[in-house]
Specification:
- 33% of the residues lie in helices and 23% in strands.
- The chain has 196 residues and is an alpha/beta fold.
- The chain has a seven-stranded mixed beta sheet with strand order 1-4-3-5-2-6-7, sandwiched between helices.
- Helix 1 packs across helix 2 (84-96) and helix 4 packs across helix 5.
- The longest helix is centred in the N-terminal third of the chain and has 16 residues, at 55-70.
- The chain starts with 10 loop residues before the first strand and ends with a strand.
Length: 196
Amino acid sequence: KSAPPTGKSRLVVPGQQVHARSMTLASDDKVLILFRHAKAEQVLGKPDHERELTPRGRRDARETGRWLHEHELGAELVLCSTSTRTRQTWSAAAEGGACGETVEYDPGVYSGGERGVLELIRESAGEAQVVMVVGHNPTMAMLASALSDGNGSSQAHECLAAGFPTSTVAVLRYAGPWHALDHGTAALDRCHTSRG
């Protein structure tokens, strides 16, 4: 992937003015939602960073938003890649009911790889209990696998092992401060692929 034209800047925007999470968590309990962008166009010669969602991708992302809403998986912080397709994925998911109190568009989600995105979560999550990353593969699948290291739901791990197609969400549970999040410290609770 080539570097995004936005450089190292980060854009922070307020999200929906709703209570992002209605689930009850103990103070150290955290939820990390890893969301692979929806299906994007394949256009010869178009820069990867500028690829847009297909009509199916928009439908799938809205359906993912509905699924997140139905399962009360709202985030206090959304870390979204700066690519066009991830921005469009988040926008369509929000149309479907996904919520995020604060959305940060960070080029590190696009170009950072598994270790870079992990470091971004550690540095950015702060006091949030529910954090979502809207990003790319193979980073999202690698991060879900590494953080959970086989811990959690066997059904969710089967889903993860079957591949991490577009519009897939991995939901991980973690107990501890975000700065200590590392390989093998989380449990994979759910893995879901939406089709609209």
